[in-house]
Amino acid sequence: MAEKLEFLQSKEVQDFNKEIERFHLGPLWNAIPELMHKQPTPEAIPYLWKWETLNAKLMEAREIFTPDRGGERRAIYLQNPGLSLRQPWGWGSTTQTLYAAVQLILPGETAPSHRHTQSALRFIMQGSGAYSIVQGERLFMEEGDFLITPKGLWHGHSHPGDEPMIWMDCLDIPTIYAIGGTFFEPYPEKIEIPSVPDNFTAQRYEGGMVRPISDRHPKIAPLGSYKWNKTLASLEGLSRFDPDPYDGYAVEFINPSTGKTANPNIASWMQYLPKGFHSKAHRHTSSTIYQVFKGSGYSIVNGVKFSWSKGDFLVVPNWAWHEHYAEEDCYLFSVSDSPIMEKFDVQNEEGLEANSGHQEVKGEFQPMLP
Ligand code: GTQ
Description:
Layout: H1 2-9, H2 11-21, H3 28-35, E1 47-49, H4 51-64, H5 67-70, E2 75-77, E3 99-105, E4 110-116, E5 120-126, E6 131-134, E7 137-140, E8 146-149, E9 155-158, E10 165-171, H6 173-178, E11 184-186, H7 200-204, E12 225-226, H8 228-238, E13 249-252, E14 267-273, E15 282-284, E16 288-294, E17 296-301, E18 304-309, E19 313-316, E20 322-326, E21 330-336, H9 338-343, E22 349-351, E23 363-364
Parallel strand pairs: 18-23
Antiparallel strand pairs: 1-19, 2-3, 3-10, 4-9, 4-11, 5-8, 5-10, 6-7, 6-9, 8-12, 13-14, 14-21, 15-22, 16-19, 16-21, 17-18, 17-20
2,5-dihydroxybenzoic acid (GTQ) binds near residues 101 and 103.
């Protein structure tokens, strides 16, 4: 070991490394410990964004940005402090693979239609009355609804209602950027004209586990919006039985014509943790972003306690030990890059054996100041 280190630090090796750098070449012998870790060592760090901050900044943005002035959307994204310096694609990264944001739309506003190679989803945090129009279908949104806009579909938002609406966006922006797959196109008009009845797909799938016969062959988004009352009913059914030791009662949003995740690269869950539930700790290759839809409690991530309540966002990066405790009945919405890990066949998972599956708490989360 010492001999190896001596060799790597020797003048001869150091000089050679410097010399080949001029030709845009690199020495594997020095780089391998950096490039090929024994296990994931993500640059994204566990982090918590409080609702008070997100809400305050969205309110300040009401006048700073309006769709008329800036086009596009009034969205503020969660920039992981561990990835801030990583240009260019650390920019806009909540985890190494996913982007998450909060978006505010005011009554009377329209966010113009566009399409892109990134897949998007929305989880409605607050308000009702606005719609997203996805491929000609107006999807009217209410609290707790989950909406998808898989890659390549036209989508825009408009608000004929009378109260501000806030939702969470999640897209695979960092992933598509990293692989060089970005395409973006604005719609020729401001917003699409409806071409099917409002809430068309939710009506077609009203029955749940039965599919219209014309959907036998896989479709990218046979169901555009997943209504909160249906998600809640599924969790009520599930909660009559034993919880999963790591995740409590959790359901995953799926594409009803393929059975796969609703979005191609992003898994989305709604999770119910009854008051007093304490999960066991585990870790997996995939990273997760949680949105606290209802309730309060805390998570322990790599030995650090993160206390959360309604509206907060928590990031659990790759391979980080995590467990949750519910101080009241909690509903957590979450997204993860597990479909990406599964496509590459690198998803691993392990449960904590020691101390009945619970971590030792070594500290409490403190926000990082620049
Ligand atoms: O609402 O279509 O936060 O295209 C980022 C990109 C939201 C959207 C975001 C988008 C959207």
